[in-house]
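Here is an idea for our session: we take a single protein and study its fold together. Start from the sequence, derive the backbone structure tokens from it, and show both lines together. Once you have written the record down, we can walk along the chain together:
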Amino acid sequence: MTTSDKIYRVNLWRFGTFGIDTFDVVKRTAKSVKIKVVDIDRFGDHSYTTTHRLSSRDYAFFDTMEDAERAAENVITLRLRYEEDRVEKLRTRLQEVCRHKAITGPSDGRCVRCNFKVPNPDDYRSGG
């Protein structure tokens, strides 16, 4: 990793927005980076520094915006693929217990034909 005065962070949290944040680098080591965070509120701008590991399950840091954008695209693609696989597995599991797959009833998440109570009904709202 080359040394630069800016660093770009991609949020890797499962329910993150995957936006790219830009920070000023205060100090960098081989394994961590200390960044300056500007907190804007109604009383003015306040800044503080915080240290992050460069290899983390929560964030990924990049020296160029191009690398950060590529990483964000990859994260989004992987998350979408994961969600598609999960929905398919849930629908298969639902079919094993409820052959109708008609989860379009009231908001309590029951099948409109057999009254089966569906776990996680939001995953089946398309009706199968």
About this structure: The two ends are 47 Å apart (CA to CA). The chain is about 25% helix and 30% strand. The first helix runs from residue 65 to 97.
